[in-house]
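User: Working on a comparison across species. This one is Glycosyltransferase family 9 protein from Acetobacter conturbans. Can you predict its structure so I can line it up against the others?
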Amino acid sequence: MRILFITATRLGDAVISTGLLDYLIHAHPLARFTVVCGPVAAGLFQSMPQLERLIVMTKRRHDLHWLVLWKQCVRTRWDLVIDLRGSATGLLLRSRACRIMRGGRRAGARVAHVANVLSLPSPPMPVVWTDEKDRVDAHEMLGEGRFIAFGPTANWVGKVWPANSFIALWRTLSGVFPDRKLAVFYGPGETERALAAPLLAFPGAVDAGGRFTLAQTAAMLQRCELFVGNDSGLMHLAAAARIPTLGLFGPSRASEYAPAGPFAQWIAAPGPEGHAPIEGLSPVVVAERALAMLAENATEAGL
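Assistant: Here's the predicted structure for Glycosyltransferase family 9 protein from Acetobacter conturbans:
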C-alpha cells in the first residue's frame, strides 16, 4: 500500500498534521509513505516510521511547484492521497482514494479540521519522531540538570511577547525553582537570534536555538519540564513532544491554533480574539499558570 501525504509549508501547520499521519501509520502498518512538505518542515519527517520518500516542495512562481510535484508522483499508483494544502494535485493522479482539506478560516481547532479529512470522531494529537542519536545529541547539547524552556520568538512581531515580560517571568520561576536552568529555543536567522538575546544574557542560560535539526530540537524539548512560548512552530513542537506547554496568545486565534497535546495549555491577552495586543498579557498571570503546571507535573512525577 502506498500513501501520498501532502502537508504544510509552515512549521506549525506541519506539526499539527503529524497526528493524522501517525494515525495512518498505525492504521496501515505495512503502508509505505511519501510525505510532501516545505523546506522548513522537512526535518519533522526524517525519522518517521514507514517513510519511503520525502519530497521537499519549494514554492515557485505561478504555482509551478504543483506541476513539478505532479511530475514526481504521476508514475505511481497511489492507494490513498491526503492533501492538506487544498490543491488539485491528487485529483490528477492515479489513486484509489483522495481526501482534500479545503483552505480558509473555519470555526474550531485546526487539529480538528485536519482530522475531518478522514471524518475521525476525535482529532489525533500531534507527535514527534526522534531516534537514539537525536536523544544522545540532546543530552550533550543541554548538559546535566533540570530545564524550563522559553520560546520568545514568532514569525510575526504581533505574536511576540515582550522580552521584558519573559525576563520578569524567568525571575519569578527561578525564584521558586532555583535549581532549574533556562533553555532558550528559537529558529534560525539573525532576527530570531536577536529576539532571544535578552534571555540568553541570563547567567547559565542554555542556547538551544538556531542551529539544530527539528528532531534534535524535539529531543531537547523532551528533556524540559515546561515550555512557555509565543504562538509559533516551536510551541506546537513542544506540545507534540508531550511536555507541559503553555502557549501565549495575543492577536492570533487560540481557538484555532492553541497547542494540541496531552499536557498543553494556553493563555491569551485580555480583549477580543484576533485583536488583543499581546503586550496586555501580564507576567504575573503567566507566572501563576506556569507555576501551577510545574507543581502539577511534579505531583504526577511523585517529586
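For your comparison, note: The CA atoms of residues 101 and 113 lie 8 Å apart.

User: Helpful, thanks.
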